[in-house]
Amino acid sequence: MTTPIPLLSLKTQHERLAPELRQAVVRVVDSGTFILGPEVKQFEVEFAAALGAQHAIGVSNGTDAIRIALEAVGVKPGDEVLIPSFTFIATATAVSALGAVPVFVDIDPVTMTMAPAAAAAAAGPKTKAIIPVHLFGYPADMDAFCALAAEKGLHIVEDCAQAHLTTYKGRTVGTIGDAGAFSFYPSKNLGAAGDAGAVTVIDPDLAEAVRQLRNCGRETGGAAYRHVRVGQNCRLDELQAAVLRVKLRYLAEWTANRRTVALRYIQNLQGLPIFLPDPGRSGTVHTFHLFVVRCDRRDELAKHLTARGIGNGVYYPIPTHRQPAYQDVLTRPTALPHTEEACRTALALPMYPELELSAADSVCQAVRDFFK
User: Fold this and answer.
1) Using one digit for the tens of pLDDT, what is the confidence trace for 312-333?
2) Which domains does the chain have, with CATH numbers?
3) Are 72 and 180 in contact (CB under 8 A)?
C-alpha cells in the first residue's frame, strides 16, 4: 500500500521546530507576562519588516482583523462593503459584525479573485469600502481597485488571510490599501498554535485607531482605565506571538518551497482538461496557500484521488451569497455566474512546504491516471 499524501500536514513542520517552539513558550511562561508584552511588540516589528509595512498590530484572529480595520477606516452600520462571494464566510461576517452590509461581487474567471468591473458595477451611494481577497495566495487586481477607490472615495481593506508574502507588481499585499488583515490560523502559511491575526497599515493615526479598538478602546500609553473609543478585547496574546516569531523566521523558505511544489504540479499537469493556477510573473507572486485546479468532473476526480490515499478539498462548495446565514440580508438580486462555476469545479491538491517532490509527482500521476 502506498503512503497516504494528506492535503495539509503540520506534523513535520512542528517536529522540526519543536525545540525552538518549546523554548519560546517557556520564555513566556517564565516571564509572567501574557498580554501585550515584549513578544507581541517584537512580533509586530518583525512582521511589519517582513512585509515592508509601516505598522503591524497583533489581534486575536483574522476575522477580528478585518472587522477592526473596517471600523478604523470609518465603516458604520448601514454602510455597504463590496466583497467577493467566493471566499471564506469570515470576510462577510466581519462586515456584518459592524452592522454594515456585505454586497457580494462576482470573480474574475481566470484568477478567481474579485472582478474589478463587477465591483464597479455594484458600487452605490452607500458603498464605503472594498475588501479585495487575495485568494489562495494569488493577489487581487489592486491597480484596478485602487483606481475604483479613488474615483468613488472608498476605503480598501485587503483580506490577506491566505496571502502572507504574496506580492502584487513588486508590492507585498497588505501594504497597498488602507489596511491589510492577516490570519494566523494554524493551517495558514504562517500559522500560530491557535487563533491569531494582525492588521497592517501605513498611516500612523489609523494604526493608533486599530491599537485602541483591539484593546478595549484604551489610548496607547494612556491611563489604564481611560478609554477613548468603544473598543473590544481582541488582543494577540504573548504565547501566540512567541510561536509566530519562531515561525516567521522560516516563512520565506516555506514560501519558496510551496512555489517549487506548485511549479512541479503545473509542469506535470499540462495538457489535461483541467484549469491550472497562474504562478504569477513580473513582480506578482502567488504564494500558494492552496493549489486549486478546476475540473468539470471535480467530484469524480476527488473520489478517485481519495481512493488513492491522496488528500484533496473543495474550496468553497457553497458561495457566501448562497449561505443560509445570508438569505435574509441580501439587499439586491445576486447573479454571480463565475462564482457559481468556481464552486462547482474547484479542487485543492496537497500543498504544504514539506511536501516532497516525489509525493507531488505521485499526485500528478494519479490525476493523469484519472483522465486516461
Assistant:
1) 999 999 999 999 999 887 766 6
2) 11-105+113-248 (3.40.640.10), 251-371 (3.90.1150.10)
3) no
